[in-house]
Amino acid sequence: MSLEHWVAIIGTVAALCTTLAFVPQILKTWRTGGRDLSYGMLLAYLAGILLWLVYGILISRMAVVAANVAATLLVSLNLVLKRRAEGRGRAAVAGTPARRLRIAIDMDETIADSLGKQLGAYNKAFGARVTPDDLDGQHLHDLVPADRADHARDLFHDPAFFEDLELIDGSREVIRDLAQRHEVFIASAAMEVPTSFAAKYAWLREHFAFIPTSHLVFCGDKSVLDVDVLIDDTPRHFERFRGTPILFSAPHNQQEQRYRRVSSWDEVRRLLLEGPTSDLERVVS
Fold this sequence. Notes:
Blueprint: H1 3-20, H2 22-32, H3 39-59, H4 62-94, E1 102-105, H5 114-126, H6 140-143, H7 149-156, H8 171-181, E2 183-188, H9 197-207, E3 216-218, E4 229-232, E5 244-248, E6 260-262, H10 265-274, H11 277-284
Helix pairs in contact: 1-4, 2-4, 3-4, 8-10
């Protein structure tokens, strides 16, 4: 066998090896998506193959031309498979719902209109005409004269006081929707009025039966709550809280400037349910 034949055989075997070397990589890209492959490497390799293809055409060597046509097809297939796998990954991420948050929500003056009942009871008992506008930055007890303080305290600490509170407008509907997407807790600082436990529990079971009893929390210091978001009308509960505080507007907190504020449950819906995922991530970051 002449040297020319050996050169042809060696060249053919070399071409087959370099061409077929991409077949195992194509199979791996099909299975894994080609995360370990660099676009830069693939494109540089493809450019080299195309130059060899042009070279083979120019010198009229069909073996070189055939080998590089096959290699061009294999490398191009690798690029297509890698691109398609990344497209599927992006689509999957886009279709993934926002992270399931743990959200704690206060009861009084956040979902239950305790202030409205307090004003009604106080005005009726003392013939007064106190309105929410009179409480700008203050609690009702801050305005009660000393000679009425004990009587007023008895009115507001009556266990039956919490049995028939009105709902804050929109609270039940928005919280129901929140509970379908996130983990929701109702957290009341009931230790301030220990006799209110039973009445508050009954009220919550009547109006928020979709919240499991395991997610009804009666506590004192809400910094113990291990949640992402706390919606509350009382700023002092945020001072040591490790999550994201959202202040629910009430007459007594109108002067507070330190925390993100919402003035209605429609605002809560827009903030936690209807905004883009990126907005929600900014809220809890």
